[in-house]
Amino acid sequence: AQKVTQAQTEISVVEKEDVTLDCVYETRDTTYYLFWYKQPPSGELVFLIRRNSFDEQNEISGRYSWNFQKSTSSFNFTITASQVVDSAVYFCALNRDNNDMRFGAGTRLTVKP
Amino acid sequence: NAGVTQTPKFQVLKTGQSMTLQCAQDMNHNSMYWYRQDPGMGLRLIYYSASEGTTDKGEVPNGYNVSRLNKREFSLRLESAAPSQTSVYFCASSVLDADGREPQHFGDGTRLSIL
Q1: Chain B closest-CA separation from residue A105 CA (Å)
Q2: Is residue B46 a contact partner of residue B34, using CB atoms and an 8 Å limit?
Q3: Is the pLDDT of residue B97 over 80?
Q4: Which class for A69: exposed (0-12), middle (13-18), buried (19 or more C-beta within 10 A)?
Q5: Is A7 helix (H, G, I), strand (E, B) or coil?
Q6: What CA dihedral angle connects B51, B107, B45 and A111, to 10 degrees?
Q7: Which of A33, A41, A72, A108 could bridge A10 with an S-S bond, Cβ 3.0-4.6 Å?
Q8: Model confidence over B5-58: pLDDT tens digits?
């Protein structure tokens, strides 16, 4: 069985603070893909990043960075110097080498001015 | 450049009524999906279609049927709506590229309320 756990239901920070969103996954597969999506208040789902199980390199994209650690089955997401526009629900997702995608329950991030 | 288009955006049904949610994509993707999103539960996969002519059950298929009409269109049908099916429904599509599984592209969602 595959499962994604986002233990943080809600996080609230003040603008310019750094914040890390946790994602822990379970799978028995050796080939799998991990994703992060953002859902702003307008409701659409925006793709942020994809990682395959063979690529453990961390990635940085502007203020966003991702830390993938297979040893702890975690794929955490850090926003540096958060902004009000980062306020959204963030979903971590796991996809095996097929079409069955499993999402975590999401973390609601509120960035206050 | 529409991407994934869902219709309708909003719908209110009475218990027992039937309804078909439509989804179309113009990205020539092979795979299409239907999810439901409920508060505190993230997105759950209802059905997916890996290619034209094939459909498979996801995590929560009970109470739903799907049709992959052609490569572009994937519809979701509620034959006898129940209040437990009140949710936001998302359609998505993706393609398997040389680097592995492409991210899914989502429609804007259909907010369905069943009274």
Answers
A1: 4
A2: yes
A3: no
A4: exposed
A5: coil
A6: 140
A7: A108
A8: 999 999 999 999 999 999 999 999 999 999 999 987 789 999 999 888 899 999
**Is A35:B43 a contact under the CB 8 Å cutoff?**
no
Q: Residue-wise over B25-51: b if at least 16 C-beta within 10 A, else e? A: beeebbbbbbbbbeeeebbbbbbbbbe
CB contact under 8 A, B100 and A44: no
- Rounded Cα gap, residues B34 and B109, in angstroms: 10
**Interchain proximity B43–A91, CB inside 8 Å:** yes
Of the listed ranges A19-23, A28-32, A80-84, the one predicted with least confidence: A28-32
DSSP letters for A42-85: T---EEEEEEETT----EEETTEEEEEEGGGTEEEEEESS--GG
Torsion angles phi and psi, residue B73, rounded to 5: -115, 140
